[in-house]
Design brief:
It is a single chain. This protein is an all-alpha fold. The protein has one domain. Helices cover 66% and strands 0% of the residues. The protein is built from eight helices and no strands. It has helices at 10-43, 46-50, 54-81, 92-118, 133-136, 161-176, 181-197, 203-224. Helix 6 (161-176) packs antiparallel against helix 7 (181-197). The longest helix has 34 residues, at 10-43. It is globular, with a radius of gyration of 18 Å. The two termini are 19 Å apart. The model is unreliable at 227-232 (pLDDT under 50).
Length: 232
């Protein structure tokens, strides 16, 4: 994983590798995996069995709540840290809080814009009688549906917002506390996996969401690191 303390040239190299792998996986998933996997999960009623495990259900809910309160928390943190009596050097947990809330806030805005741009049909019908693969055999990108840069729930499957928020927040924690990085990656991956297992998203949706969340988190870390910030 990239760290802002590394050489400045490592940032574009890391992000280039991340997106090269991510795009390849997205294409493979889109053309060969998404539809059969979605149908398999639906046919075998996998989501109904998983609901017995409250752990998976709780995984689904937390990113949606956090993305709503993150901008408010970020504003509060910035006000506190900019007070005249506050210390110039932030403590580690304070830096982590700023990085997490900033990453989540930016991810929330960007993923909504991307949802509007791609306007992809959902795996299943669950809101506003939306077209879906399971109900209507609708599959693909409809492009620029709904109000400008707001998107619509009817075509908002790509990228996965929950996955992007999960990776943006948890990777931010792992970047500050390096010993927790592997655990953070695991937890974020479980959130993304739950989106697929409940047929809320296609596999390619969560791959894109993961790449987006990681990218924003790493960029925010580089910018916030004043002494060893990367140069673009």
């Amino acid at each position: 994983m990239f760290n802002a303390q590394n050489s400045p040239t490592s940032l574009p190299k890391f992000l280039g590798s991340l997106w090269a792998i991510g795009i390849i996986l997205i294409f493979i998933s889109y053309f060969f995996i998404d539809k059969p996997l979605c149908s398999f999960i639906f046919t075998h009623h996998l989501s109904s069995h998983l609901y017995f495990f409250s752990f998976f259900k709780n995984l689904i809910e937390w990113p949606g709540v956090f993305e709503l309160i993150a901008p408010i928390l970020l504003f509060i943190f910035l006000l506190i840290f900019l007070l005249p009596n506050s210390k110039n050097n932030l403590k580690k947990y304070q830096s982590m809080l700023i990085l997490v809330t900033l990453s989540v806030s930016l991810t929330f805005l960007i993923k909504n814009d991307l949802k509007w741009i791609f306007s992809r049909d959902w795996p299943t019908t669950w809101t506003h009688d939306n077209l879906s693969w399971i109900k209507n055999q609708a599959y693909g990108f409809q492009w620029f549906q709904g109000p400008w840069f707001q998107g619509t729930d009817s075509t908002g499957s790509f990228p996965s917002g929950h996955s992007s928020i999960a990776f943006a927040s948890l990777i931010s924690v792992g970047l500050v506390y390096q010993k927790l990085l592997k655990v953070c990656v695991l937890l974020a991956s479980l959130e993304a996996l739950s989106m697929v297992l409940f047929n809320y998203h296609f596999l390619s949706d969560v791959i894109a969401g993961a790449c987006l969340g990681i990218t924003i988190s790493v960029l925010c870390q580089a910018v916030l690191n004043k002494k060893k910030a990367c140069h673009f």
